[in-house]
Amino acid sequence: MFSSIPFHKTISAYNQAINIPLPKFEDFDVRDFSENMVTVRLEMPAFRHGFYQIALLESGGGKVSSGGKIFDLDNFTLFFIQPGQIIQWQVPKNWKGYYVSLSESFYTMALDQFKVLPDFPFFQRYTPAFKLKREEAGKMIEAFQSLKAEYENRDIHTNAIIKSYLATILGFSLRFYERESKDTSVQNALLSLPDRFKKALNTYALEVGAGLVNDHKSVSNFADDLAVSSKHLSETIKKSTGQSPIEHINQVLVEEAQKLLLTTDMSVKAVGYYLGFSSPSYFNRLFKKITNTSPAEFRKA
Fold first, then answer.
1. Which parts of the sequence belong to the HTH araC/xylS-type domain (predicted)?
2. Which residue stretches of the chain have pLDDT < 70?
């Protein structure tokens, strides 16, 4: 369906594509960014891969794009990548930090109620990168360094020890994700309903653009997320913006489609499927309704 965007199913295929050494394990890898910088491709066009990643940028900056959004990375930035996300980057040679790549089959320790990797909230939906506090980053870096040291010195106990360090990294990630989510919730409580809806739309756009949406959200879904009734949300947004919530939601879908049509060579049908449309004809009708042109005509123009 997405043959025009390279898909690196395995960690080995991914490492080859970005020009770094092959992993020591088939379904797990841990890397020091500064070591990668010797050979890694500093510019990567859009691609996808078939495994999970957790990365901490200690310093270096640069730009990473996911789901059509460009993020300027800052020191102590934590970010998560899910299977199938479209990613591209442009980074300097002075990156410092660590990351892990792991397949679902490698995660067998079942941390608390999280029996499989998709159970973790930061892997359930698109999670924008966020900045850690210095002391938080220090704990993560220490865990990554211990994991990396064990990874480089293998014996019969290595697999179990690696998984224990991985559980520590996942545990810290969960703690900092929940802290970030709580801080965001407090900030959202101070916003007006139209501003909260706009922020929710921006998050939804990231999820849609990253290819992580199978069923489109309804006005009722947004109302539930914002803890208001559908009627109140509809009346408030219409009064504030002149458009109904569903018009805003559809606008997000079409804008994400426009980005893919302009930046990839995916077929129109593939773009529709990628964005969660089960019917190519409905995708075409909605696109034309909002833009007064078909997806194919939009691309040619």
1. 218-301
2. 1-4, 65-72, 184-190
**What order of strands is seen across the sheet that includes strand 28-32?**
28-32, 96-102, 52-59, 77-81, 130-131
- Counting every residue written for the chain, the total comes to 301
Give tens-digit pLDDT for 228-252.
999 999 999 999 999 999 999 999 9
| CA-to-CA separations, 193 to 220, 234, 244, in angstroms, rounded | 15, 11, 14
Matching residue, tokens 């079409």: 254
- 2-18: per-residue pLDDT in tens? 446 788 999 999 999 99
Q: How many CB atoms lie within 10 A of CB 143?
A: 21
Superfamily of domain 193-300 in CATH is Homeodomain-like (1.10.10.60)
Q: What CATH number labels 7-188?
A: 2.60.120.280
pTM exceeds 0.70: yes
